[in-house]
Amino acid sequence: MSELSLNQKNIIITRSKDKISDVKKLFTNKGAQIFDFPAIDVGYPDDLNPLDDALSEINDFHWIIFTSSNGIQFVDERLRNLNTSLKECSKKIKIAVVGEKTSLTLSDLGIEADFVPPEFVAESLIENFPVSGYGLRVFLPRVQTGGRNFIADEFRNSGSRVVEVPAYETRCPDSIPIETINAISNRKIDAMVFSSGKTVSNSSLILSLIFLVRTSLSNSIATAWSFSFATIPSLMISSIALSHSGCCAISRYLRIKSCSVRSLPSVSRSCP
Q1: Which one of 35, 79, 106, 174 has the lowest number of neighbouring Cβ atoms within 10 Å?
Q2: Does the predicted TM-score (pTM) go above 0.85?
Q3: Rounded to an integer, what distance in angstroms lies between the CA atom of residue 12 and that of residue 241?
């Protein structure tokens, strides 16, 4: 696939507010103008009791497995409420992480991961885990909804006792910047970048509601959604956190003939 020129292109990025800076720099370095569309708000889960219960016994675990930077951030915050920290706990418990960004987030806390799989996917963690799972107590903090059960299931199948609890949740935000809405309305956007299945589904919901009101379309939310995306000629898929479920969501939502869907060279992998 030929490289897509980004010079003087208007690009929408749909990452959360606290995660957008690195991706924005990637595009602006290639000459693009960025419009923010934070399609995900990250916060604590609806019920913190399961997480707090697990953290109160954290020293009883052999391994903690983090699959995202968000998991590290929110676990460390809750531990500090208990007058300790993830760095302090790491002196007694081994930590495994999936993903380069996850590993860097751990390093920012002054912690070196005990195991990072050679490939940044859950399957690689299972295939290359340094010890047998039999008899291990494994703590797996995860997103409240939408995550995979693969790691927990595989460890349970190997004889581990797994405590899997929601440490954070990704929610659909209430609004997006008016500058971004106006740029879409005025057909000024050249491309839109998605980083996960949730950014696709949340974007579709937000834009559906906005354009349902703005265009007085009475047919359906789906009609309004199609109208809004029809103003954007290219939809791009970033590989940052892109999983098979993300590809499925994109295939399900982005069936609009006026849009082309493509992956980004050098920062993405193709959808199956």
Answers
A1: 174
A2: no
A3: 17
